[in-house]
């Protein structure tokens, strides 16, 4: 499994062991940290939107040669490619290609457009750390 940003992966494991010991448990299932980061794939600092927290998990499916359309995320977004290939155009920040098992924190409050550049459907797990007063995704036309 490929991880685009490792960050503090080992610290999460150590913290899990500390919690397990504190709770009196003798074993703890091993963790496979996919991403642990305080910045997006573009190096942007993350900030949770104001309001009541809302976690939204979704599978995004994009057919070959289709795109998401130009949009931004106003809530931090964890993404993992489950199947296929996605190339994201971040404008002045360049493009990045993601394939199956790539995990990353998507660009935050920056317009970008993802295109399925593979031969089959691209399926992406998207987990937003949003709030009740902020849209997770805002299209350019909004």
Task: Sum this structure up briefly.
By secondary structure, the chain is mostly beta strands.
Q: How would you characterize this protein structure?
A:
The protein has a single domain, classed as Jelly Rolls (Sandwich), CATH 2.60.120. The strands form three sheets. It has a four-stranded antiparallel sheet with strand order 1-8-3-6, with no helix packed on it. It has one helix and nine strands; from the N terminus they run αβββββββββ. The N terminus is likely disordered. The protein is mostly beta strands.
Write the topology of this structure:
Elements: H1 9-22, E1 53-62, E2 71-73, E3 77-83, E4 85-89, E5 95-99, E6 103-105, E7 113-116, E8 122-131, E9 137-139
Q: Would you identify the CATH architecture?
A: Sandwich
> What share of residues are in beta strands?
35-45%
Secondary structure tally, helices: 1
Q: Averaged pLDDT, please?
A: 86
Helix content: under 10%
Task: Using the alpha-carbon principal axes, give the shape.
Answer: globular
Give a count of the beta strands, DSSP E runs of length 2 or more: 9
- Please state the oligomeric state of the protein chains shown: single chain
Q: pLDDT under 50 segments (min length 5)?
A: 1-21
- Provide the number of structural domains: 1
What string, H for helix and E for strand, traces the elements in order? HEEEEEEEEE
Distance between the termini: 36 Å
In the CATH hierarchy, what is the class? Mainly Beta
CATH topology: Jelly Rolls
Q: What order do the strands of the largest sheet run in, or round the barrel if closed?
A: 1-8-3-6
CATH-assigned homologous superfamily: Jelly Rolls
**Rg to the nearest angstrom?**
17 Å
